[in-house]
Amino acid sequence: LTMASDSPESLMRLCTDYCLRNLEGTLCYLLDNQTLQLHPDIFLPSEICDKLVNEYVELVKTDSIFEPHESFFTLFSDPRSTRLARIHLREQIVQDQDLEAIRKQDLVELYLTNCEKLTAKSLQTLVSFSHTLISLSLFGCCNIFYEEENPGGCEDDCLVNPTRQVLVKDFTFEGFSRLRFLNLGRLMEGVNVESLLRPLASLAALDLSGIQLGNVGFLTQWKDTLVSLVLYNMDLSEEHIQVITQLHKLRHLDISRDHLSSYYKFKLTRRVLTLFVEHLANLSSLDISGHTMLENCTIPSMEEKMGQTSIEPAKSSIAPFRALKRPLQFLGLFETSLCRLTHIPAYKVSGDKNEEQVLNAIEAYTEHRPEITSRAINLLFDIARIERCSQLLRALQLVITALKCHKDDKNIQVTGSAALFYLTNSEYRMEQSVRLRRQVIQVVLNGMEAYQEVTVQRNCCLTLCNFSIPEELEFQYRRVNELLLSILNQSRQDESIQRIAVHLCNALVCQVDNDHKEAVGKMGFVMTMLKLIQKKLADKTCDQVMEFSWSALWNITDETPDNCEMFLNYSGMKLFLECLKEFPEKQELHRNMLGLLGNVAEVRELRPQLMTAQFIGVFSNLLESKADGIEVSYNACGVLSHIMFDGPEAWSICEPQREEVVKRMWAAIQSWDINSRRNINYRSFEPILRLLPQGISPVSQHWATWALYNLVSVYSDKYCPLLIKEGGIPLLKDMIKMASARQETKEMAWKVIEHCSNFKEENMDTSR
């Protein structure tokens, strides 16, 4: 049984996404190298066009890689080839000319949310849709009633102040004969709402959120049609209540408020709630969140706590609601004392009592009330942190939606990213689909991109640590690396973020293919790590950041010559020597540094740069190191084995002498325990195997053979198949025949061959 969220994207969604990302290759061509033009033989119905426009807005808002097109909306200018009916446009994405481009369309539904770039020019464009428009939202379009007016006067004055914003007062909804649903939330002050709305014959739903109106008597003209009224954050009075009770067809009433935003004189009373129940017989949804109750509306405490929790009105803990004919579908009680009562007569309640109420609050308020949503998400964060979240998938989806919807709201980004950290930890992992976890990664990266703020960055980095790296981040590989490197390149850094970011960088370049490593190297990865090391060295500090940075360099240089060269070009060897001198006892640091130099030594063209008396002397001395078991000694010997492989003629220094170093290498190898457990991970044996078929350096041959014997003995399951797959057995057999190879090397080679042969037999499938 798969989870609902694990089902694949619909074919429509996939095709829409592909077309939008490849407009020129699918629906369009470029006219004059700049304007998008629809191919002449294309006709698209509204079912497709609506999705194209709405998905385009979503991509521009949430996908930083997606490039918006200036002329996108012109593709829908001609209804003979493209039809639009229901579109939702948001924020800075839409401008006056975009609406103007689609003015010939017969729009039925137009939602404009927080489109602050729209001016009074767009009011005139709205008139083009007046004969078809049924549903219109202008929520948060705070400049749409302003036009630019040239003040006249002298030229100098015009240059200083060429335009000024003037409020349009003569616009009304005259002619919008079919308009039934209207949202004017957060309309600017000064607009006469009554005269604006008067021409509308039969409004069914009206949202006047955040508008202060002393007189709302005009609402009674729709008393026989209005089924939904939202007066969020309107300071109410007794007159408002009298008007509301006359709207007898109301099914949804929202008089909630944000109790933190400003002082409200109005207090809810038992009598007001009783009036609503008596006069609004059809009421199925009521929101009174944020209100202070002037008097006690609850039944006596003893009675309230009796019996099993019930939604039956007759048992209601809120006395006025005992007169309801049936339970409400929704009751908003967020940030009121009423939500903590036992018997609440509603199927769905928003509040802060428990997880269900908190999730209902996030769901109800996300789109238009970020100030409330951030506080609800903060409550969810506490639930996820302290208790176990019982509706995990719903909680995750709601937080993802809030983070996408309010990408630029700092409070939501802080609380949302913190909640995601707890909702994605290992405890919940089994319940999450690949698709859902990818959505989490996308919104986390959006947050990191939009905010340099410490809390958001830390939360986002910590959340990424909950994922399998690099596997789960591979689909956003370039983007996540760029973001982490930009964090690490900031001049002022928070210690904890730095530590987490370096850890993530290290994990991202471990166990990935060479193309990925080269791409990350070109982004400045090597330089960034060396800068971190330099800073730590200056502070005489060897902490996790220092060790992770060297480990990351070890990983990114693995079989990647370009990155090895960058390490040398950016004074990596100088830093290696300084770290060795400053931190002589730091075993893990030594291991990471020597592992990295092993990668550099594998690149033939770079080995001459290691051939200095100083470097060879250091590597030779490290052969005797007991740091981290055999690892430092082993890696030092590996570096020297590759250098020896170039032959005596490449030994361009007088001291130490080649023979002396060879002797020390033999002694080191013979001192190692063949059963040593290893702190190393080989993806390929190729760099080791190339040391076998040669007679110029028997000690290099011996080091390579010892390495293979140790790995196939201790980690047979992993390394026997790898050695067989990469053709190691024939190379070992050929080496045994070589006269130049030492006898002990040949004996060890036989043991490797034997070990792999036994492994093959043990794992052979004998079933029939």
From TrEMBL:
Gene3D superfamilies recorded: Leucine-rich Repeat Variant, Ribonuclease Inhibitor
Entry keyword Acetylation: yes
GO CC list: Cul2-RING ubiquitin ligase complex
Key words of the record: Acetylation, Leucine-rich repeat, Repeat, Ubl conjugation pathway
Source taxon at top rank: Eukaryota
Domain Protein zer-1 homolog-like C-terminal residue range list: 403-757
One Pfam family matching this protein: LRR_Zer-1
Ranges of residues in domain Zer-1-like leucine-rich repeats region: 195-336
InterPro entries to which the protein is assigned, alphabetical: ARM-like, ARM-type_fold, Armadillo, LRR_dom_sf, LRR_Zer-1, ZER1-like_C, Zyg-11_UBL_adapter
SMART domains the UniProt entry points to: ARM
Keyword Thylakoid: no
UniProt subunit comment: Interacts with the ELOC-ELOB/Elongin BC complex. Part of an E3 ubiquitin ligase complex including ZER1, CUL2 and Elongin BC.
Annotated PANTHER family: PROTEIN ZER-1 HOMOLOG, PTHR12904
Family affiliation: Belongs to the zyg-11 family.
Protein name from the UniProt record: Protein zer-1 homolog
Biological source species: Eubucco bourcierii
UniProt lineage: Eukaryota, Metazoa, Chordata, Craniata, Vertebrata
